Amino acid sequence: MDYPLASVRITDFDPSVIDELVPMWRASFEFGVGIVDTNPIEGQAEYFRTKVVPENRVRLAWSGNELVAFMASTPESITLLHVKVSHIGRGIGTRLLRLAQEESSGSLWLFTFARNERACRFYERHGFKVAARGFEPFWQLEDVKYVWVSQQSAA
User: Fold this and answer.
1) What tens digit of pLDDT does each residue of 67-119 get?
2) Per the confidence metrics, is the pTM higher than 0.85?
3) Number of helices (H) and strands (E), helices first, in the chain?
4) Can you tell me the distance from the alpha carbon of 120 to that of 97, in angstroms, rounded to the nearest whole number?
5) Are 11 and 69 in contact (CB under 8 A)?
6) In degrees rounded to 5, what are phi and psi of residue 111?
7) What is the pLDDT of residues 132-145, one digit of tens each?
8) Which end of the chain is more exposed for a tag (fewer CB within 10 A), N or C?
9) Any idea what DSSP says for residue 70?
10) Which residues, other chains included, contact 93 with Cβ-Cβ below 8 Å and sequence gap of 6+?
């Protein structure tokens, strides 16, 4: 890895970055799932403010002054984990995922879309197992529920 991961700093969510975060989230989603989101970006920002932020701890990953990733999670689940497309594969998602694992109650669950093969491989590489397969009605796409259990919890 030629990327100085140590220079990436993690902070708690700052509402002033919403106009930077939401377009990054959308681009990462579109890249991973391979679809174009035609919904108004203002609606996505409102959803983030009114649903994601109140129900999760949101972390931001920064490289200098550039927002390069974010994660929304609880001690039981990962709601969102998105890395800026230009920064995928540099270990930033792994760093955020490990943070969620460390702060978990001993297990985590999450959903991702089945067609996002890169995300599926990422979670499986980090010890997540397929718990269920389903269908997400809003996007009309197959989804996968993953579960991770810490080694200490499993012992």
Assistant:
1) 999 999 999 999 999 999 999 999 999 999 999 999 999 999 999 999 999 99
2) yes
3) 6, 7
4) 13
5) no
6) -120, 145
7) 999 999 899 999 99
8) C
9) E
10) 69, 81, 83, 122
Give me the long-range contacts of 2-5 (CB less than 8 A, separation at least 24). 3/87, 3/90, 3/91, 5/90, 5/91, 5/92, 5/95
Token pair, residue 64, equals: 């200098």
Q: Class of 5-154 per CATH?
A: alpha beta
CB 68 within 8 A of CB 91: no
Amino acid found at 6: A
Q: What is the DSSP letter of 34?
A: T
* pLDDT 10s digits, 27-69: 999 999 999 999 999 999 999 999 999 999 999 999 999 999 9
pLDDT at 153 over 80: no
